[in-house]
């Protein structure tokens, strides 16, 4: 890995220059942060699971016509993606009340929303990713109106698909976060899905018990976070080569030994 030029290190991923121009390698770390990195920790095997879960979801989304930066998974912790210019907006899609929505508006956690709610946050760690209105996006030129139409239409289609996919394996899709990027072709650009979709950026509850199977286990010190990520991967039928926890743990051990 040290051979490659590092472009950026984020909280959960490292980006390296890809083998061809216009490509990037996304490396998934086990590091976990919450509350704008005030809380830091690691979730053993998380990087391996998120790499695989995100590959799975992006591949299925491409099959239903959602364009994305995903090219292919390279190994346990890395995937090759197209280089994009990230739109500085976090798109939050909500089906049930949880997290900041419950705090901001006093709505009880778990309340089913009358319809899917899309929120936008301005991607700026120093400001703590503040909630913004579409008017701010237009006013400050963070995305054009046409781009916002593409983004919101894709977000709704992604939600419909994912709610069905998770519903089929006994998981309630409470909310999730998406990021989009601009793929340039000469002077023109189009919006494609970027970043990752994994239990780091989704709220996933067991349909029967409402048990949390996502990063809220870490955020709220509930324990069992590695097991929750493994359970999501297991229900999605990933890691056919072996037991999820063994595969992810083995890789984490290998990483610690620096191999
Ligand atoms: P929130 O309720 O804290 O606003 O989060 C909504 C969803 O977005 C939740 O599934 C977690 C995800 N999310 C991220 O992926 N990154 C973030 O920085 C934040 C604040 C939320």
The ordered H/E elements are: EEEEEHEEEEHEEHHEEEHHH
Number of helices: 7
Query: Ligands bound here?
Result: thymidine-5'-phosphate
| Principal-axis shape | globular
State Rg: 18 Å
> Into which percentage range does the β-strand content fall?
25-35%
Largest sheet: 7 strands, antiparallel
Identify low-pLDDT runs.
Answer: none
Beginning-to-end CA distance, first to last residue? 10 Å
Helix proportion of residues, in percent?
25-40%
Topology:
Blueprint: E1 6-9, E2 13-17, E3 23-28, E4 31-34, E5 39-42, H1 46-63, E6 70-73, E7 78-82, E8 85-86, E9 89-96, H2 99-105, E10 112-122, E11 131-132, H3 134-139, H4 145-167, E12 171-185, E13 188-194, E14 202-206, H5 216-219, H6 225-235, H7 244-256
Helix pairs in contact: 1-6, 1-7
The chain binds thymidine-5'-phosphate.
Features of this protein?
single chain, 259 residues, five-stranded antiparallel sheet, 32% helix, binds thymidine-5'-phosphate
What does this structure look like?
With 259 residues, this protein is α+β, with helices and mostly antiparallel strands. It is 32% helix and 32% strand. The strands form three sheets. Strands 8, 9, 10, 11, 12, 13 and 14 form a seven-stranded antiparallel β-sheet that branches. The chain has a five-stranded antiparallel β-sheet with strand order 1-2-3-7-6. A hairpin with a 3-residue loop joins strand 1 (6-9) and strand 2. Helix 1 (46-63) crosses helix 7. The chain is globular, with a radius of gyration of 18 Å. 37% of the residues are buried. Thymidine-5'-phosphate is lined by residues 92, 98-101, 129, 175-177, 201-203.
């Amino acid at each position: 890995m040290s051979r490659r030029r590092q472009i950026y290190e984020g909280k959960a991923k490292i980006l390296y220059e890809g083998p061809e121009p216009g490509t990037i390698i996304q490396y998934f770390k086990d590091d976990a942060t919450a509350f704008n990195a005030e809380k830091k920790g690691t979730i053993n095997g998380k990087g391996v699971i998120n790499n695989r879960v995100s590959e799975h979801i992006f591949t299925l989304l491409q099959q239903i016509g959602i364009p994305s930066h995903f090219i292919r998974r390279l190994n346990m912790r890395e995937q090759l993606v197209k280089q994009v210019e990230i739109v500085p907006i976090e798109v939050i899609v909500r089906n049930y009340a949880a997290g900041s929505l419950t705090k901001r508006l006093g709505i009880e956690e778990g309340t089913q929303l009358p319809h899917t709610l899309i929120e936008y946050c301005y991607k700026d760690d120093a400001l703590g990713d503040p909630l913004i209105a579409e008017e701010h996006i237009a006013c400050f030129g963070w995305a054009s109106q046409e781009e916002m139409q593409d983004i919101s239409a894709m977000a709704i289609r992604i939600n419909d698909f994912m709610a069905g996919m998770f519903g089929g394996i006994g998981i309630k899709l409470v909310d999730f976060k998406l990021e989009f990027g601009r793929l340039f072709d000469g002077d023109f650009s189009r919006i494609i899905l970027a970043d990752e979709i994994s239990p780091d950026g989704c709220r996933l509850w067991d349909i029967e018990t409402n048990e949390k199977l996502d990063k809220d286990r870490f955020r709220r010190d509930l324990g069992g976070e590695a097991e929750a990520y493994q359970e999501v991967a297991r229900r999605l039928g990933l890691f056919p080569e072996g037991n999820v926890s063994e595969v992810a743990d083995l890789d984490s051990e290998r990483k610690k030994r620096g191999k």
